[in-house]
Amino acid sequence: MKRALLFSVAAILLFATSCTQQNGPVIMTPFQKLQGEWYYNKAFFVYNNGIGRDDVLNDFVDCRIIFDGNIISMENLRTGQVLEGTFELYKDDAGGYWDEFGNYVQDMERFMSAYLYDTQTNRRYVYDWQINYLTRNKLNFGEFYSDGNYSFKMKKIQ
To answer: How far apart are alpha carbons 86 and 96 in whole angstroms?
Structure first.
């Protein structure tokens, strides 16, 4: 009987303390997950023919992206170039399907548009990215062009 009581108390303590938040809310919106400073972990250019891809991480290894509210800054630490502006997140209902239990599963795609300005050259840039994966500390996105697309993987600087 004592063992069962001790086990019950230990289980309650374990469950009560395991759900406390350490680094922000337990459930976060995509906007909240983006906040902070990110660095490029992997970068590839994939050709439209699908046969080849180039590792282009060396072009991005010294770059950082910082999200602060709806402000975005892209900084190249090697050249000192800084692009600043705003961004917006949006989602598109790409359709869905019915699973084997008869439930409709919605297929949602997330996108981000960044409107940036380079103060050194007075040029404006617009980037449209498809977000493929986003957690508190990982971001995977693609950037599409007529001859192929970039595939990026980023990690958050803690």
So the answer is: 31
Tell me the mean pLDDT in the region 114-136: 93
CA gap 127, 49 in Å, rounded: 23
- Cα 99 from chain centroid? 27
Domains of the chain (ranges; CATH) run 30-156 (2.40.128)
Residue closest to 61 by CA, chosen among 37, 82, 36, 40: 40
pLDDT in tens, 16-66: 454 545 555 678 888 999 999 999 999 999 998 778 899 999 999 999 999
In angstroms, the CA 41 to CA 23 distance is 22
- Determine the pLDDT at residue 63: 95
Residues 6+ apart with CB under 8 A from 152: 40, 42, 43, 60, 139, 140, 141, 142, 143
Give 106's strand partners.
Answer: 96
